[in-house]
Write a structure and sequence with these properties.
The protein is mainly alpha-helical and about 110 residues long. The chain contains six helices and no strands. The longest helix is centred in the middle third of the chain and has 22 residues. The protein is elongated.
């Protein structure tokens, strides 16, 4: 998995499972992924070592992967979108309305 794929994957997992992380873990993740701060910058903000941030991010990856392994919300979402895309090719107004309704929930 390249860096961009990894970033997108963990951002997606965070959308599903981020609230299950501790507030500190959520903050570290947001600092790194959403604010694009370096490990050193995050460490400086939180008054911890760079290595502590690195270790915490690795722990967060493991936690998110564990939730996904058990619940598979990300994988199910991908599969559902594939099915929706296939149905959207059908030229039927009822199907198009149902698809629009499903997509408005996402």
């Amino acid at each position: 998995m390249n860096i961009l794929d990894k970033k997108n994957y963990y951002n997606s997992l965070f959308d599903y499972y981020g609230k299950l992380l501790t507030p500190k873990q959520q903050e570290y993740f947001k600092n790194y992924y959403f604010e694009d701060l370096s490990l050193a910058e995050i460490a400086n903000i939180h008054d911890v070592s760079r290595n502590a941030i690195h270790d915490q991010l690795n722990k967060i990856y493991q936690i998110l992967d564990n939730y996904e392994e058990k619940l598979q919300l990300h994988a199910k979402s991908i599969k559902l979108n594939e099915i929706i895309d296939e149905f959207s090719k059908i030229d039927d107004e009822n199907i198009k309305r149902m698809i629009a309704k499903i997509r408005s929930v996402e």
